[in-house]
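Re: the request from the purification team.
They wanted to know what the chain is likely to look like in 3D before they choose a buffer screen. I agreed to run a prediction and write the result into the notebook, where they can find it.
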Amino acid sequence: MLTLIEPPGAKRGVPTNNRSAQHLLTFAAATDDDDELETDDANERSATGRSDNRTFVQKIDDFLVGKSNSYDFSERWKREFSERPSWCDADMTLQQIKRGKARGNRLALYSRSLIQKALFSLGSFVERHAFLIVAVVLTFFTFCCYGLQFVRIETDIVKLWVARGGRLDEELSFLTRVQQYSTDSEIKRENGLGGGYQVVIHTPRHEGQNILTKEGLLEHVAIMQQIAQYKIEVAGENWTLADICFKPPSPDIDNSSMTAHYIPVIDRIIPCIWITPIDCFWEGSKAIGPHPSIEASSLGIAKEFLTSLPPKERFSWSDLDPQAIVDELDEMFSMGNTRSFFHRADIGKGYLDRWCIDPLDAQCPRNAPNHFPFCDLIPRFLEYAERSGFEVPVDAEYLRDEEAKKKSSNNQFSLFDFFGGSQFPSFKLHYIVFALSEVCEH
């Protein structure tokens, strides 16, 4: 902040190179007091120059004050200086203060004068060496452009926000570290934290088409089945996805117990963990298998006691009711916390109580919310067809195969051959009902 006591004197007829004798602005005529002040100031400065004991302030004055000349500037500069003197030219303001024509903060003005002097020197250097400055700037810019190829932008939230060596970092890397130091001969499976994922991206046939349809989901089921059944041979052994995928850990079973004989079967029953839309439907059980299905003979005598198992030679997750099996085992052998843990996990009936993508699928379980009991309605439908006088198309090859099976098993004559191959008699409707009823039972 600068306070002008009186307006500076007008321009006088003095040599332009005499900086100490020049007035600052040409706003008014010079007075005798101004001449006396300037003469005293000049004498004082010359006497100070001859002295060997100049103070620190005087040295600063010699370096920062008296370097600015108002005659070298335009009328616009003079107008701005009259409005904002300390901001426009700190050197000129200090000259006003030293002549007693103004009051202000000398320390702030010295700082501004130093900054203005440095910037003025820098600008003068750039003006004198314009081509050199342009070349240096272009060289530096080229160097920065070359370094852009080595820039890597980190987008992993864990690496950006989780401190290294902290508790959260230790917890995230715990499972990976344990697996690395494990001496178990079992194949290391991916842990889902630091391991990689195998991703299957199913896109529609045409751009913009909705893939979450019945046909699209059934096609995805077929693709996942092919992936699950795919085999490769390494070192004389066949490997499938079930051998390397991430699975929940097997239950701890004592080697001396009878259940230890069924550990291979239990390992096969435990499915791989994968995230897919078809896992929300019953058809998802077709993909997880196991492949091949578990043979009932592999259970030995246990199959005679487990009435909850499907009445088939082979079974898989598509017809397996885990809740019924666990409840039955708990009645025979007290499972304790295992049964409680099973119910808390809400595994329930597995896939048997999930919606079917295709409700008309003959294998769609009865517990499915959208199960269509077409097997119960077939006899009524065929009776209606007989009364209405229209025929229902039947696969003749299927009937021929079924008749051949009955003939070979019972060593009886074939009704189908007896009535002339593909020609059905009037009672063919009852035979169709009988055949379809057997299909529904299976």
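For the purification team: Residues 374-441 form one domain.
Please add any questions underneath this entry.
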